Amino acid sequence: MTYNIAVLDGDGIGPEICNGAIKVLKRVGEKFGHTFNFRHLLIGGCAIDATGSPLPEETVNACLASDSVLLGAVGGYKWDNLPGDKRPEKGLLGIRKAMGLYSNIRPAKLWKSLAKASPLKYELVKDGVEIIIVRELIGGIYFGDRERGTDKNGAEYALDTEKYSVPEIERITRIACELAMKRSKKLVSVDKANVLETSRLWRKTVHEYAAKNFPEVEVTDVLVDNMAMQIVKNPAQFDVVVTSNIFGDILSDEAAQVTGSIGMLASSSLGDTARGLYEPIHGSAPDIAGKDIANPIATILAAAMMLRDSFNLTREYDAIESAIQKVLDKNIRTADIMEEGMIKVSGSVMSDLIADVI
Ligand code: IPM
Ligand code: MG
After folding, report:
1. CA 219 to chain centre
2. Hey, which of 93, 127, 221, 227 has its CA 20 to 30 A from 74?
3. Per-residue pLDDT reduced to its tens digit, 241-286
4. Cα atoms in the Cβ-side hemisphere of radius 13 Å centred on 230
5. Predicted pLDDT at 116
6. Where does the chain show beta strands of DSSP type E?
7. Where along the chain do its domains lie?
């Protein structure tokens, strides 16, 4: 089969980590007999520099015409002082919306060989941690009405609105329940229902929808502040977690950090078609860009998730995952996951070694 992949390299370390993933995909193509075509498109700061917009129309059209999209990372100091709607991040939010990607899956998995890298006490993580955060991605306060003005007393104010409709909550609940059914059948829903009206609707809808359509899934509610605490107190208690856009943004960084290796975590964003957007969880790391020290594994895993979740290529996913494990088992590390007694390699060598063992 031939697959057309749109590559949004983005800014900072984006191009180098995408390069690593492309190398691995090419190797998978050779081994399993697929052709992957890559078309590079602009997004974020580099798109602002080249076209004035963080999300040129050409990029949107090409993504919508592709079989799936691989994204590096966007943003950097250079563009930090631009107004809200001209920032690189706006490009990322825009492409999520344009592609209708309402479901963002962020697995925070502790690789056993890296358990010592977790900032938590070893006994809290020694049996493994795998929290899969299902984040609603194109609703809530990220996309609600926004305003800046001066009130009648002359005070400057700003306003952001959180809004969720029942269908928006139901469709993300369905994704989370489907995932829970394949795993522990336990689902934790995170909200702030003791304060927010959107959270009260969220909680009611999640329960009603799950009870009606996935009666085997056991749904537990956890308030977001408590959740932030539980993730560091006892991360192993969680499996699938569903939550709103902003809570998912915050908690997924926390869960990622618990694994000790944000450079190892990937995420997928999907809507109602097989076409998704796959990206590492980490950012563009402008401080280390161009030095070939960034860890490409998160992006390589993102590419692997694309094969599995958009193209239904499960064996190919497994081949990449086990290649990563093999390289880690040979004590090879990039700088971010380096420990005493291990062999430190550059980002490009890391991706070469992974491609070689496939
Ligand atoms: C993420 C990022 C983005 C978000 C930013 C870059 C807009 O933090 O993907 O988690 O908040 O969604
Ligand atoms: Mg974030």
Report:
1. 23
2. 227
3. 999 999 999 999 999 999 988 899 999 999 999 999 999 999 999 9
4. 16
5. 82
6. 2-10, 35-41, 68-73, 103-109, 130-136, 146-150, 156-160, 186-191, 218-223, 240-243, 266-270, 277-280, 332-333, 343-344
7. 1-100+272-358, 103-270
CATH architecture of 103-270: 3-Layer(aba) Sandwich (3.40)
Relative to beta strand 277-280, strand 68-73 is: parallel
CB of 249 sitting under 6 A from ligand 1: yes
pLDDT digits (tens, 9 = 90+) for 47-88: 999 999 999 999 999 999 999 999 999 999 999 999 888 899
Give the per-residue pLDDT at 245.
98
- Residue 179 confidence (pLDDT): 96
User: Which atom of ligand 1 is found nearest the CA of 137?
Assistant: 12
Catalytic pick from 49, 85, 127, 225?
Answer: 225
The response to whether residue 136 sits with its C-beta less than 6 Å from ligand 1 reads no
Q: What is the DSSP string of 103-158?
A: EEEEEEE--GGGGGGSSS-HHHHTT--EEEEEEE-SSGGGTS-EEEEE-TTS-EEE
89 Cβ closer than 6 Å to some ligand 1 atom? yes
Give the dihedral of Cα atoms 207, 167, 174, 98; nearest 10 deg: -150
Report pLDDT digits (tens) over 174-198: 999 999 999 999 999 999 999 999 9
| 1-100+272-358 and 103-270: identical CATH topology | yes
Q: Is 109 a catalytic residue?
A: no
Say which CATH topology domain 1-100+272-358 has. Isopropylmalate Dehydrogenase (3.40.718)
Average pLDDT over residues 223-244: 97
Q: Which residue in the list 67, 192, 278, 317 is annotated as catalytic?
A: 192
